[in-house]
Write a sequence for this structure.
């Protein structure tokens, strides 16, 4: 199976402290994404346990590029909300310094996970419910999930169902434009 990626917007989810420390959620449970996928609570548990038993860690990359590690995730775990990450950008690495500056300026506002799907099934809404994932990395990225779904009319926020419908519509439009 191929490596897949999921994006999550920083907004209030990720904070930067002292220019190099970052923390937040790389994945949120129950949220539908552009690919019509929903990550279930518990999807990362086996992978995180295996990594720990093997003395390995989830990698922090720049834009999913395996040739550009930019920091260390000191803490990666599931909680009731999603996949929480806490780590440090390495200021001794050029891309780490660049990432810190771009985050501080607001130019970079996304996290994305790189993973392999181990188990998934269609739910009653026709979405792919991801129940077990092999987590490889969490990247800092330029483009977050659903970049155009930030503002709702009259200052109201979109609920998960509305976001999912919008995500499906955007993905359909993207595929149509790509001719796939």
């Amino acid at each position: 199976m191929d490596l897949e990626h999921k994006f999550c917007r920083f907004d209030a989810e990720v904070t930067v402290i002292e220019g190099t420390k970052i923390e937040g959620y790389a994945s949120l449970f129950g949220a539908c994404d552009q690919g019509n996928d929903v990550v279930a609570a518990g999807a990362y548990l086996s992978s995180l346990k295996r990594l720990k038993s093997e003395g390995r860690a989830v990698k922090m990359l720049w834009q999913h590029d395996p040739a550009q590690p930019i920091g260390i995730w000191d803490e990666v775990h599931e909680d009731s909300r999603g996949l929480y990450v806490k780590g440090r950008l390495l200021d001794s690495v050029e891309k780490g310094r660049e990432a810190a500056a771009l985050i501080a300026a607001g130019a970079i506002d996304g996290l994305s996970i790189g993973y392999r799907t181990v188990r998934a099934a269609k739910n009653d809404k026709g979405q792919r419910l991801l129940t077990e994932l092999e987590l490889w990395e969490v990247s800092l990225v330029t483009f977050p999930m659903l970049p155009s779904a930030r503002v709702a009319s009259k200052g109201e926020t979109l609920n998960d169902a509305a976001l999912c419908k919008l995500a499906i519509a955007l993905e359909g439009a993207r595929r149509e434009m790509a001719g796939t």
